Amino acid sequence: MSETMMETPTAGTLTDIPQQTGVVSDPSGQEVDASGGYVTAALAGRPVRVLPAQRWRASHLRALNSGDLDAFAEGVLYADDVSVWYEADPTQDEIGSWVREVAEAGGEGLGKSSGRTASSRSTARR
Description:
Elements: E1 23-25, E2 31-33, E3 39-43, E4 46-50, H1 58-66, H2 69-76, H3 82-88, H4 92-105
Antiparallel strand pairs: 1-2, 3-4
Helix pairs in contact: 1-2
């Protein structure tokens, strides 16, 4: 790349945020841990830092859907908070409530996908 050409910065990624300590508000008004984009949600009554649901990788969702809850938790929880998962030994109801709280804390409710939109053209052939 020549020195006269400048790379266009991309906006909106969490890596573009200057590193700070503490908690800041994101544009949706939710509190996000500034050191890594984690949100706080109560797991069996204990606060833990967790990636917002929009940042869960496919491997995290596969682990969740296949019932490997420990692997799921290890993937989405802040490393220092994984021990809380094992100590709490949450029930299925507590896990379900926690996942919903995480989704809402990240600005998304579960099941809010817009889904497919109707075609603007008729699909019938003449």
